[in-house]
Amino acid sequence: MSIFTEAQSKAILDKVIALSKADQCTAQLKGSIDGNVRFALNNVSTSGIVSNVDLAVEVAFGRRVGVATINAFDDASLERVVRRAEDLARLAPENPEFVPAVEKQAYRPSPTFSSATAAITPEYRAQVAADSINPCKATKLVAAGFLQDGQSFVAFANSKGNFGYQQATGVDYTCTVRTDDGRGSGWVGRNLQDSSAFNTGADIQTAMRKASASADAKALEPGKYTVILEPAAAAGLLAFMFNDFDARRADEGRSFLSKKGGGNKVGEQVYDAQVNFTADPWHPDAVVMPWDDDGLPREKLPLVAGGKVANLQYSRFWAQKQGKKANADIGNLIMAGGTKSTAELIRGTAKGILVTRTWYIRMVDPQTVLLTGLTRDGTFYIENGQIKYPLKNFRFNESPVIMLNNIDELGKPVRVKGDESDLIMVLPPMKIRDFTFTSLSDAV
Amino acid sequence: MLRRDFLSLSGAGLGAVLMPPFARAVAAEALVDGAVPVEVKRRLADAALAAATGAGATYCDVRVGRYLRQFVVTRDAHVENVVNTESTGAGIRVIAGGAWGFAATNDLTTDGVAAAARQATAIAKANAKNQTAPVQLAPTPGVGVQSWRAPIRTSAMSVPVKDKAALLLDVNAAALANGGDFVNSVLFSVNEQKYFASTDGSYIDQDIHRIWPLMRVTAVDKASGKFRTRSELSAPVGLGYEYLDGNKADQTVLPNGVVVFGKSYDMKADAIAAARQARAKLTAPSVKPGKYDLVLDPSHTWLTIHESVGHPTELDRVLGYEANYAGTSFATLDKRRDKFRWGSDKVTIVADKLQPGSLGAVGYDDEGVATKRWDLIKDGILVDYQVIRDQAHIIGKTASDGCCYADSWSSVQFQRMANVSLQPGKARLSVPDMVKDVENGIYIVGDGSFSIDQQRYNAQFGGQLFYEIKNGKVGQQIEDVAYQIRTPEFWNACVAVCDERDYRLGGSFFDGKGQPAQVSAVSHGSSTARFNGINVISTARSLG
Fold first, then answer.
1. Hey, which residues does A382 pair with through a beta bridge?
2. Mean pLDDT, rounded, for B491-500
3. Are the Cβ atoms of B454 and A443 closer than 8 angstroms?
4. Which of A41, A54, A67 lies at the smallest CB-CB distance from B321?
5. What is the value of pTM for the model shown?
6. Angstrom distance (rounded) from CA A368 to CA A347
């Protein structure tokens, strides 16, 4: 069993701390049980369960740090991992940016655990696959998808008396549905902490509808268009931008948030006044751990308020150097919005393009956060409040900074997860002016 | 898809150390010895094979693996982190009732692997109930007892960490002394000790080494608020520490004065150049968008080959197995039947698992198939795909191509890209001779941003360094260049490829595919190649 209780975890961590002869010691236990099912061509292709627990021990002699890990927890193993970390630390060069372990904290727990998700069985996973495949099979559509669910725990302690323990769960489902002639493709994604809110039967209909409706796509000349980005389409662009919300990089002059002549843009109007982003570990739709990997407590942190940069992330080293308060790495990203659904935004649009999803987004120029990527799995032309016809996919070259200065309207935020980001995001569908498409793609 | 930015991930803290797939952190000296003796591996494999067949499996393969990784991470004048990881265990794959089953364990006792083999068989039997067609394996004769070792001179794992740190800090100091404001550098070493056994009668022991020195030099102009970076022109390679020897004989000076590297790398010389070139970028003029003839150095072309040829010729993508993640392929089976013209007659592209010093070179793949080299595109025509044992019958092949790989003992093996490379031109042609005929072109060195659609038609690539070519002469350094292509048009615009004297390898350590995602390392070779009339956009923007 790789989910330890708080008492089991504390007993192990206390032993580790007591064993260490170093100036300081931090120990962290992480365990998880993850299950998955993968399907393609309307058949299950793989299915599995992986469970593991690891103990990581970090010790420091002065500014020399060593880390070792192990996945056995008898007394001899604990002794071995501590000695190994100490041996490594003695050999390590001094780190001039060393910061001592965090002091004892009082963490405010966040409800990251759902018993329904933790109880998911192989039969449940098989049923999700069947509920995805069967309606597709019946209508000459082809499903390819992946369900991954997991429960986990993290526990940590250090020689200054700090301790934390919490369990978490998560479910992530994605399904791509294609027409059997390969001319249409649709997609749906659902990321949840509590699986009791998950309904494959309803979600698969979204992907099926988009697949059928996206065949016979017309080509539209690339250029600047009003777009409605569904939350999943915006997630990848925003995750890239928030990688640069780092005070050190901005202060060093190597970020779009660096100021001419030195310093950073905290307090400056960088976005349209409708733009508000917050990181909030207790947000009901996106609960995350109340600490980061360093054990620093997360707080509700405004990042952009009324279009002005409100806060950047200060590591403990950089905060100390600049005389600022350190803040924990963020675990989620909440963007404020309005009350309208994507469908309602479409109804209020004279001419525009609906983008279901974006793909293979990469940084082109970090100076302006210019990103390139493509639309996929459901791109449609909107006229007079109606979806008129499917469009061939586009390549875009656009900066989220420019995009967030061209907001027409924001809809009701929903929980999403980006393809390549660990952040849980709550984002509205966005109606954006002058979004830059630079070429057409023949890909379906 | 390629992982996007290893440097930004590599400042690993306690949390990152726990990140899979890098496994358990160990002391550096544990990387040098501690290998599982081959007779122990044989005993474990036999126990698993017997348990699987005893439980009803009609086929079984066992991979007993020890995977070692080391990262030495520096920033400016100090070492940020040294991480050594080790992961050992066994992965057992079986066919029972015509279906696959897989189980893995880190319990390396005969009882432990036998239990995993029985579990894999039980999973296969459960999967067989819903299987519509039984797995068909291309026949692979057993090869008995074999061993293969990467042709390296010095294992990077045997070089003391302090020597590696000293090298990187020397590199960083050189960059900072030559115009760089910041420098991050990393030395990443990998050793895979893999033992494979199967019910076909093969017992194969292999020792694989890879190394990747990488850096990013940043130049900042605080007054204008502008910054630019230049990353390494090295390649990740299937070599030992000797790759860092910096032999002059392995260096080429391009017509623009840029120094590029072949079988060995001079990291310090590259750092000095990187610092100067990053600073020059701050004042380099922006490209005027339009159609240009592109002259692409192999340090750049590898990534274009990877994305626009390597991926679309993977059969599992062609068939739809990757539709929900990495995507499908425009290169459908009818295109091979109809002799689809992928490129001009200058374009011959081969898949190759033998190439010495490449990331993909092994003696046998992860299902015991002896490796080989084969044509994918011959004189511009699509002639073949990349297939493994259970796919060969689908396209009428009688044998696997030997390109099956798993990134860990705990991951199930599946089709992964072989080294896929553009063959050098047959006629004698040097880079200066190629450039002298170009009237209005851009010379691109090094890989930059990259993005391609899910069927591999529309791609956009940047680079590290861009130079104007006017009337046969290489001119000033320019900035903000990206080119956009449609795959077949791009390869049909290839009008010349330099000869074998200019052939060099590039590659990636982190090609991602599958769900749950696995990474693999793959090389791509080419000589400098010319593509006429390619659409170039300017990536310059203003945030006001």
1. A352, A387
2. 98
3. yes
4. A41
5. 0.95
6. 33
Q: Which residue has the tokens 């890239």?
A: A240
Domain ranges of chain B: 6-281, 290-538
**Of the candidates A46, A175, A294, which has its C-beta nearest B324's C-beta?**
A175
* Total CB pairs under 8 A between chain A and B: 217
CB-nearest partner of A397 from B8, B328, B539: B539
Q: What is the pLDDT of residue B115?
A: 95
- What is the nearest CA distance from A444 to chain B, expressed in angstroms? 7
> Does A68 contact chain B (CB < 8 Å)?
yes
**B218 neighbourhood in chain A, CB within 8 Å:** 254
User: From CA B114, how far away is CA B137, in angstroms rounded?
Assistant: 23
User: Rounded to an integer, what is the distance from CA B30 to the centroid of its chain?
Assistant: 26
Q: Is A376 part of the contact surface with chain B (CB cutoff 8 Å)?
A: yes
Closest CA to B529 of B346, B341, B307: B346
**A143 near A42, Cβ under 8 Å?**
yes
In angstroms, the CA B374 to CA B386 distance is 9
CA dihedral B373, B376, B377, B378 (to 10 degrees): 50
In B106-241, beta strands by DSSP E: 144-149, 182-198, 202-221, 226-231
Of A29, A336, A369, A311, which is closest to residue A165 (Cα–Cα)? Answer: A29
Specify whether the CB–CB gap between B82 and B16 falls below 8 A.
Answer: no
pLDDT of residue A71: 82
Taking alpha carbons only, the member of B409, B408, B395 closest to residue B48 is: B409
A104 touches chain B (CB under 8 A): no
A30-44, A106-120, B95-109, B120-134: least confident range: B120-134
A36, A71, A97: residue with CB nearest B78: A97
CATH of A6-212, one of 3.90.220.20, 2.70.50.60, 3.40.50.1980, 3.30.2290.10: 3.30.2290.10
In which band, very low, low, confident or very high, does the pLDDT at B22 lie, cut at 50, 70 and 90?
A: very low
* CATH 3.40.50.1820, domain B6-281, yes or no: no
Q: Confirm if A154 and A165 have CB atoms less than 8 A apart.
A: yes
> What is the DSSP code string of B449-510?
-EEE-TTS-EEEE--SEEEEEETTEEEEEEB-EEEEEEHHHHHHTEEEE--GGG-EEEEEEE
> How high is the ipTM of this complex?
0.94
Query: Which residue of chain A has the CA closest to B15?
Result: A293
Q: In the predicted model, what is the mean pLDDT of chain B? A: 93
Give the relative orientation of helices A200-213 and A122-137 as an angle to the nearest 10 degrees: 30
In angstroms, what separates the C-alpha of A65 from chain B's closest C-alpha? 9
Beta carbons of B449 and A363 less than 8 Å apart:
yes
Biggest alpha carbon–alpha carbon distance for chain B: 74
Residue of B412, B460, B490 best to disrupt the A interface, most CBs of A under 10 A: B460
Give the model confidence (pLDDT) of B176-212 as tens digits. 999 999 999 999 999 999 999 999 999 999 999 999 9
Report pLDDT digits (tens) over A385-394.
Answer: 999 999 999 9
Contact criterion met (CB below 8 Å) for A10 and A155 = yes
**Whole-Å CA distances, B348 to B295, B298, B421:** 18, 15, 8
Q: Which residues contact A307 (CB under 8 A, 6 or more apart)?
A: A269, A270, A271, A272, A273, A274, A275, A404
Q: Which helix (H) or strand (E) holds B85?
A: strand B78-96
Report residue B8's pLDDT band, with 50, 70 and 90 as the boundaries.
low
Query: Which of B27, B83, B535 faces A87 most closely, judged by CB atoms?
Result: B27
Q: Residue A153 and residue A156: Cα distance in Å, rounded? A: 10
Residues of chain A with CATH 3.30.2290.10: 6-212
pLDDT value for B439: 98
